[in-house]
Each structure stands twice: as structure tokens, then as C-alpha cells.
Amino acid sequence: MNINKNTHIVIWIIIGVSLTIHGASLLLSNTLLNNITWPLIEAHAVVETFGSAVALFIALALLFFEKYNTGTSFNIEIATALLVMGILDGFHAAVNVGQTFVWLHSIATFFGGLTFITLLAHSRFTWFKNRYWLISACTAAIIIGTMSLAYPTDLPHMVEQGHFTGTAMALNAIGGTMFFVAAVKILLVYRDSHNVSDLLFCLHCFLFGAAAIMFEQSKLWDTAWWGWHILRLMAYIVALGFLLVEGMQILQELKQHKEQLEELVSERTRSLVETNQKLEETVAYLNRTHTQLLEREKMASLGDLVAGVAHEINTPIGIGITSTTYLQQHLDDLTMKYQTKVLSTGVLEDFISDSTGACKLLLKNLQRTANLINSFKQVAVDQSCEQVRAFNVHDYVQEIIAALNPEIKKHDHKIKFHCDPGLIATTYPGVIFQIISNLVANSIAHGFKESEQGEITIEFFKHDEHIELIYKDNGKGMSELELSKLFEPFYTTKRGSGGMGLGAYIIYNLVTQGLDGDVHTVSEPGKGLEYRIAFANKQATPLKVVS
């Protein structure tokens, strides 16, 4: 069964019990228990104190619920009424039996009904929903209670010879009537709101109204007197039922919220797992792509090197072939003259002179070819094996420049190289080649304008345990914005002209991952581009180069 259905059943039971108590107490008071009283002052004080505490507590709860748009349809008005009644009932419970005793009870009923009936103006006047009204009403209740205790002789007569006076009956009758009116108003609102809390406070007002009407039919301490006190106690219990209902509803909402939250967390978790799997797949794909790009760049660099070396070797080999052909022709001519016995001293001397020059030329070009092959072999091996080794930086970079020289000469550029001849580095020589060859290629492709003679400067310096490579060109330079994007993949200033935008990105990866170093750039438009690359000179263990 749901909360509303349970509450309705309880309400009908309370109504039946209250009517039974009402009728039974009146019947007994006027028949079997006529003229019998029970002056239980302590029990009365406990009942009134309990009622006062419940009223104050429920009022604070209603003010709390108002902040969260829950509770009843009249949180402020009902809270104000309960605070006023709770304050005055508290004073009533604290005094001895007498005129003040009855006065405080009667005035509590009157002002309770009066503040409850303000909910009739709920939709017309905002004053009764204002905190200043609440403070004013509570202040007035405290003043009335205090003045009643301070000036008891000035109070109107409320009891004469054990019976209540007309003043006491009037205050209770008017208060009870206002409680009934408030109950009707709340019931009408409940028909539209279907708010169980409204129905509970409708019953609360009904019980207080019934208790006030019973006041007229009772005398001090008789059975009817205790009967309406029981009705008031039941009214406060009903108010506590309001808290129970609200608490159960809040618990249900929390349970539903928890279930929704768990479902949301589960859904988000599934989504995060799926997203994480997609991200892992994307990262793996990007790593493979990155590896392939670096491998292609390395092979492209090696391919350019092979083409350059092949072009460079063609010249000395061609000269060697020409010299060998020339020698062969002179040797054939000399052999023929020798066989026909017409060989003269002058012919022999000419042959020796020409042969000596041809041999020198042939030897020089063969030596040049051997040097090119040795340089190519060393650089190619360094690129392929990717192992840490100690090498002479000066000599190795000279070999790199020699390997790149055909490309440099083809564009009529110049390379200036400065390095201590005794500088020894322990690192990946193949990575050094890839960095320098990419830097040179970038300068030729992006730094220098067509038909422009450019100048490249390469310098190496040793700083403690680090080596610094400074690479500069005197090309067109870069703006601040272009420089900030230099190392971004696929960023190029020659989009649509064959540029892929991977050259500087690969340089950055080679420095940071291959050499575990740092790279910084400086440039201004028209003032060239400068790279400052620093890397460790000593490696405790070989670095794994991303290839």
C-alpha cells in the first residue's frame, strides 16, 4: 500500500476515535462521573509541555520544508500559528491553576485560530507569508505570555466556583470556530493539491476546533475537561504524523533518486568504458601512424641520401672511365708501334707523361668515390642500427654535410660548420643525421625563396654533461603565430604545394624521444629561423628511439 492510502485510513480512524472520545467524555461527565474531578496538575503540565514542544518543532520543520518547496500548501501560515500556540501553551504549562492558567489556555486557542485563519488570504495578501509577520506574531505571543505572568490581577475573570466564565467560553468558541473554518479551507485546497500533508493539517485544525467547542461543555478537571485535552493531544500527534508522512515521502524520493543515480552511474560507467576503449584504439592507431610516419621519414632521408651520393659518385666515376679509356687508347697505339718497330723515344715519353696525368686523375677520383662511399656507409649504418655509440661529432657531421652536399649545391646554398674537432658524443648518431637532414630540408623547402642563395650555420658546443646544437638559416623567418604552431603535426606554410607539415614535428619527436633532449626556436619575419637543441652527452642505458 502506498503512503497516501495508509494516511487516509489513519485519518478516518482518528476522526472516529476523536468523535468517540468527544461523545463518551461528555456522556460520562454528565451521568456516571458527574461532579467527579481529577486535578492531576503534573499530568496536565506534561500534556501541555509536550504539545508546546511539538508545535514549535513542527513549525521549524515547516519553515525548513518551505525552502525546498515541499510540506503543505500553507507552510508559513501554519508555522506562524503553531509558533504562537506553542509559545502560549508553554506559558500555560508553566503556571499554577487559577485565572492566569485558564486565561493563557483560552488566549492560546483564540490566537491559534486567528493565525490559522490567515491562510484564507494566502493567494491575496503576501504579508501573511512574510517573515516579518511571523516574527511579529511570535513577538506578540511572548509579550502576552510575559505580561500575563507579570500582571495576573489585571486579567479578566476566567473561572468562578470551578466553572468557566463567559469570557473564557467566548475566547474558546471563537478560536474553535476559526479552527473549523481553517480546516474547511485546507480541505478545499486538498481536493486540488492531493497533498496528504494538507489533509493531515485539516484534521489537526478539526481536532483543535472540537477541543475548543468541548471547552464550553466542561468544568475544571472534570471528565469533559480531560476529554478535550486528549483531543488537543491527538491534534499534536496528527502534526507529528505530518513529519512521519513527509519523512517517508522523502525516503521514497531518496530511494528513487538513489536508484536513478545508480542507473545513471552504471550508464555513465558503460559509456566511459566504451569511450576508454575507443580512446585506447585511437591512441594505438595514432602510435602506429606515428611510427609509420617516422619510418617513412627516415627512409625518405635515406633515399635522398642514396640519390645524392649516387649523383655525386657519377662524376668521379665518369672521369675515371674517361681516363681509363684514354689510357687504353694510348696503350693500344703504343703496342702497335712497338710491334711494327716504329716506336720512338718521343712517342714513349709522350705516353709516359700522358699516362702519369691520367693515373693521377683516375686515382684522385677513385679516392673521392671511396670517401663518398665510406661516408654514405657510416651514415646509412647509423640510421639503420639506431644504437648508442661514441663518435667524433666534428668528423661525423662533416660526413653528413658531404652526404647532403649534392642537394645544397643544386640550390646554390652554403653550409657553415663550427665544432671542436675533439668533441666526442655518446648518443644515437643516426638520430643526429635525421635531425640535421630534416633541418636542412626544411630550410631549403620553407626558409629560402626560389633563386635565393641561402646560408645555413651548424654549431656544436659542449656544456658540462650536455651538448648543444645550434642550427640557423638566414631565410624568410616566421611570425609569432607561425612559430607557436611550428611543432604541431600537419601544420605547414606550404599547404597545397606539396608540404605535409610533418618535418618540424618529426624533428621535435627525434629530439625529445630519440635524444631525450629539449628544443627551442627563435625567429622573426625576415630574420631567419634558429633551433637550439640540447641533449645528454652520456647515456647510462641506450634510449629507445621512436622510429
General description of the model:
- With 547 residues, the protein is of the alpha+beta class.
- Helices cover 68% and strands 9% of the residues.
- The chain contains 13 helices and nine strands.
- The strands form three sheets. A five-stranded mixed sheet has the order 4-6-7-9-8, with helices on one face. The protein has a two-stranded antiparallel ribbon with strand order 1-2.
- A hairpin with a 2-residue loop joins β1 and β2.
- The chain is rod-shaped.
- 36% of the residues are buried.
- The C terminus is likely disordered.
Brief descriptors of the model:
alpha+beta; five-stranded mixed sheet; disordered C terminus; 547 residues; 9 strands; rod-shaped
How is this fold's topology laid out?
Layout: H1 3-30, H2 41-67, H3 75-94, H4 99-116, H5 131-150, E1 159-160, E2 163-164, H6 166-193, H7 196-215, H8 223-339, H9 345-385, E3 389-392, H10 393-410, E4 414-418, E5 424-427, H11 429-447, E6 455-463, E7 466-473, H12 480-484, H13 503-514, E8 518-523, E9 529-536
Parallel strand pairs: 4-6
Antiparallel strand pairs: 1-2, 3-5, 6-7, 7-9, 8-9
